């Protein structure tokens, strides 16, 4: 195999897992409307279906470092592929809400392992000058997996008449099985082998990457960095001194990645687009556009990360995210609700004639408050009629600039896909010393997962109770705080070896 492309080919194979993870994570977005109907789910139960994945992720995050340090990066990645397959099968054949949650948790454990170990593995095998772009290969594959989930869901919507959600959640098994097979083609991480005293094997792999001189230099650097922190490699060391400061930076950037609301948008995109007036088919198609935006901007980030650096991409992205959230919030502030001639035609296509008669007294009224509108609506309907028809009535009678909202949401996804989305995991794989890298990313990943659990869990409730505008203004405020944090605390790591980054951070923290 050509030496120049050896590490890249390994990274591409490992990145197949990124595709499997992305498909697994977002397959639920298309299934939500069908699950809501089949299992008669409340909005909070819908939140539990989406967020149950993150319960497993947090368990995966916490155990990934310990397991990969003991058994090796490759073995944990193989276990990841197996659990993804098992979780997908459980979800596809779930006979009940509880069994569906169980399948989501199993898949979540695997996703937690994959999100931590794949970036660690790639960072440990990549030459310094290519580490950013090679790390981005995994993130790009993740974005492609997300896009594939949207497109597959859209196709299933037209091709399958029944059990649509089972097909959506079951097809994730295909890339998971392929991932398991492909992993047998890659070696173990050379840095892990060196840390375990298997220097000859590590040298062979590093020689294949950069030649004998490169291998000798890397092994020497690894051994020198190990000697400096030889006293202990227990997780408790991460909570002391300079290591703790670095860990706090990692936790903060990992939490920020989720606090800005990305998973709420990705999980609920079809649902959200349908609520602002689109048909179900159009909403799924618009969600596919989100997938395309993910890929386009991830490719852009891949070209820029080793040129302008990690920190610059983060700053550009977070500024764009703030602007997008503000635009969405302001647009929702201007939303009006009325039953006029135009909305009546839409309503007649979506609700029963008997119900149309009951809401006739509301015709001609204009509401600037969704809460007041729903309150009046509820007073004319039974509880069951209101709950069963609320979404159809809202999407048929809302008056807002849906194009501006759609463009702003797509732009938000693009800004995220070129900054916080991929750069966070690349940065986390670079910040920590060799001996503590997997353990530290596990901790940072746990907090990332903790925030990721609550954001989509409460998103439907937030839209229902505090409104769309307030929800997006909250996300904008969090992103603004993140902007100042990035400027103040995030170091630039481009072009430096992992050992050089370690020396600089340990000296300065």
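^ Assign residues to that structure.
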């Amino acid at each position: 195999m050509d030496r120049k492309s050896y590490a890249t080919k390994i990274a591409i194979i490992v990145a197949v897992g990124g595709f499997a993870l992305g498909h697994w994570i977002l397959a639920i977005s298309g299934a939500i409307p069908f699950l809501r109907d089949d299992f008669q789910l409340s909005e909070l139960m819908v939140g539990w279906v989406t967020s149950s994945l993150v319960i497993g992720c947090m368990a995966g995050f916490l155990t990934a470092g310990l397991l990969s340090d003991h058994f090796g990066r490759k073995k944990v990645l193989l276990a990841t592929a197996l659990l993804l397959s098992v979780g997908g099968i459980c979800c596809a054949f779930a006979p009940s809400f509880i069994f569906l949650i169980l399948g989501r948790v199993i898949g979540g454990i695997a996703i937690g392992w994959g999100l931590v170990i794949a970036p660690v593995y790639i960072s440990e095998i990549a030459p310094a000058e290519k580490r950013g772009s090679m790390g981005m290969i995994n993130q790009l594959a993740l974005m492609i997996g997300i896009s594939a989930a949207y497109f597959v869901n859209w196709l299933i919507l037209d091709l399958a008449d029944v059990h649509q959600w089972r097909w959506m959640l079951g097809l994730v098994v295909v890339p998971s099985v392929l991932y398991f097979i492909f992993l047998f083609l890659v070696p173990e991480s050379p840095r892990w082998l060196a840390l375990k005293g298997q220097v000859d094997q590590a040298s062979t792999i590093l020689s294949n990457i950069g030649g004998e001189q490169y291998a000798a230099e890397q092994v020497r650097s690894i051994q020198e960095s190990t000697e400096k922190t030889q006293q202990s490699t227990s997780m408790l060391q991460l909570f002391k001194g300079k290591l703790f400061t670095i860990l706090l930076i990692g936790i903060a950037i990992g939490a920020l990645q989720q606090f800005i609301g990305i998973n709420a948008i990705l999980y609920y995109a079809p649902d959200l687009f349908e609520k602002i007036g689109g048909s179900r088919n159009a909403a799924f198609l618009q969600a596919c556009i989100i997938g395309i935006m993910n890929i386009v901007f991830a490719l852009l980030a891949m070209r820029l990360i080793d040129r302008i650096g990690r920190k610059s991409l983060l700053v550009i992205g977070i500024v764009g995210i703030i602007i997008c959230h503000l635009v969405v919030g302001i647009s929702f502030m201007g939303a009006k609700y009325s039953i006029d001639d135009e909305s009546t035609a839409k309503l007649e296509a979506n609700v029963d004639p008997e119900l149309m008669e009951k809401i006739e007294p509301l015709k001609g009224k204009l509401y600037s408050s969704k809460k007041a509108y729903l309150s009046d609506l509820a007073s004319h309907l039974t509880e069951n009629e209101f709950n069963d028809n609320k979404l159809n009535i809202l999407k048929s009678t809302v008056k807002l600039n849906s194009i501006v909202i759609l463009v702003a949401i797509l732009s938000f996804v693009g800004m995220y896909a070129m900054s916080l989305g991929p750069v966070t995991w690349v940065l986390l794989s670079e910040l920590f010393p060799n001996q503590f890298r997997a353990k530290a990313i596990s901790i940072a990943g746990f907090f990332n997962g903790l925030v990721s659990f609550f954001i989509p869990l409460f998103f439907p409730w937030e839209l229902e109770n505090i409104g769309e505008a307030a929800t997006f203004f909250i996300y904008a405020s969090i992103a603004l705080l993140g902007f100042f944090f990035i400027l103040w605390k995030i170091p630039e790591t481009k072009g430096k070896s992992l050992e050089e980054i370690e020396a600089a951070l340990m000296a300065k923290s």
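The CA atoms of residues 246 and 346 lie 55 Å apart.
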